[in-house]
């Protein structure tokens, strides 16, 4: 067994998917989003676990789609981000998102010249202002589609910029804009798929479901929705203490002499550091003044009133001593070793997001019910 690994409980994954489907009508399709290595949980195994229970698998970049196909995953795959590598898209049977008028022109030109069929969804701009075709371009879009002999328009989609919980008015405004696109395309084409809802808005805002929703972070555990539906965390990061050391009171510990022992202590070395997200803070780069102030007030609250550690042994918090290193973190094991007097095979739980865990770290999957 590795000194550090991510244990993924597939039963909890299925449980979360069932809970989320209970929020949908029977006619609403589901896209299971596995971008970003399935939010750190391992895209191949998660995709294999989901493929019989979702209508689409969603990825963010082309390489993610290729990886799934290379691992014998035959389910429909939707590429949400833009690409102009249409040869690869065709060879790997990927449905793509068309995110600009220029990309649509290039897609139709390539398919016409190469006599090859590609399915696509058009992304429309509703307020995220990242990718998307504008409403004023739609007459040109229809004319361009009419020149295509091989492409198949399958759907229309957009992206919420925020959640119903955080900014109800903006979400409703975006849906209103999306409805204009839906009405336009419904008058031109039959049986298209329409999707805009992410996990949080799927739970909190049923009017945003249309005929498909995109489920990402809620598959992997509780998300930032107003309504809580009992989702379960599906993964735990576990590590073994790889070294212990006795230090005397007054000795410095860690880089920069960042901690000085107040008593005789037993230190434990955990094989994880800031390379995998230990001690990192996600700062609001580019945010306005007041959201930034609110962010730092929340961080101050967490520092003053919440546990200052993310490392636990059998549910008990272990104090982190000094700053995390790149690949190691030092914790206080004094009480634990005093109680059990055994230094072998001490395994700890690390409560950070799996999305930070590098792909080379082993993932293990629980697929059978224990006990």
SS elements, strand count = 19
Strand order within the widest sheet? 8-7-6-5-4-3-2-9
Distance between the termini: 21 Å
Count of structural domains? 2
Q: Supply the helix-strand structural class.
A: alpha/beta
Largest sheet: 8 strands, parallel
Instruction: Name the average pLDDT.
Output: 90
N-to-C series of helices and strands: EHEHHEHEHEHEHEHEHEEEEEEHEEEHEE
Which class of the largest domain in CATH terms? Alpha Beta
In DSSP terms (H or I, runs of 4 or more residues), the helix count works out at 11
Topology-level CATH name of the largest domain: TIM Barrel
Report low-confidence residues grouped into runs of 5 or more. none
> What is the CATH homologous superfamily assignment of the largest domain?
Alanine racemase
Portion in beta strands:
15-25%
CATH architecture of the largest domain: Alpha-Beta Barrel
* Net shape: elongated
User: What is the C-alpha radius of gyration, as a whole number of Å?
Assistant: 24 Å
What share of the residues lie within helices? Answer: 25-40%
């Amino acid at each position: 067994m590795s000194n550090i690994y991510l244990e993924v409980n597939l039963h909890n994954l299925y449980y979360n998917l069932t809970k989320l489907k209970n929020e949908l009508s029977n006619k609403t399709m589901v896209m299971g989003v596995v971008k970003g290595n399935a939010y750190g949980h391992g895209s191949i195994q998660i995709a294999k676990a989901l493929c019989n229970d979702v209508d689409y698998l969603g990825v963010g970049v082309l390489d993610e789609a290729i990886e799934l196909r290379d691992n014998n995953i035959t389910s429909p795959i939707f590429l949400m981000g833009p690409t102009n590598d249409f040869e690869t898209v065709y060879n790997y049977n990927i449905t793509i998102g068309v995110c600009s008028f220029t990309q649509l022109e290039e897609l139709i030109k390539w398919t016409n010249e190469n006599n090859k069929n590609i399915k696509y969804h058009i992304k429309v701009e509703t307020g995220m202002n990242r990718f998307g075709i504008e409403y004023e371009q739609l007459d040109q879009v229809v004319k361009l589609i009419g020149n295509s002999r091989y492409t198949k328009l399958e759907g229309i989609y957009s992206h919420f910029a925020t959640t119903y919980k955080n900014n109800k008015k903006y979400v409703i405004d975006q849906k209103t804009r999306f409805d204009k696109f839906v009405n336009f395309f419904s008058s031109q084409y039959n049986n298209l798929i329409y999707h805009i809802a992410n996990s949080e808005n799927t739970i909190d805002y049923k009017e945003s479901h249309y005929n498909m929703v995109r489920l990402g972070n809620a598959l992997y555990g509780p998300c930032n929705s107003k309504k809580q539906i009992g989702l379960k965390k599906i993964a735990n990061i576990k590590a073994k203490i790889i070294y212990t050391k006795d230090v005397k009171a007054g000795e410095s510990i860690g880089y920069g002499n960042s901690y000085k022992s107040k008593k005789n202590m037993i230190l434990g070395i955990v094989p994880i550091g800031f390379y995998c997200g230990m001690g990192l803070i996600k700062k609001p780069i580019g945010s306005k003044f007041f959201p930034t102030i609110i962010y730092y007030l929340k961080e101050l609250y967490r520092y003053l009133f919440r546990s200052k550690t993310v490392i636990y042994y059998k549910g008990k918090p272990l104090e982190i001593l000094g700053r995390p290193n790149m690949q190691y973190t030092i914790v206080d094991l004094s009480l634990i070793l005093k109680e059990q007097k055994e230094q072998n095979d001490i395994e700890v739980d690390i409560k950070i997001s799996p999305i930070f865990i590098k792909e080379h770290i082993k993932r293990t999957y629980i697929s059978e019910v224990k006990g």
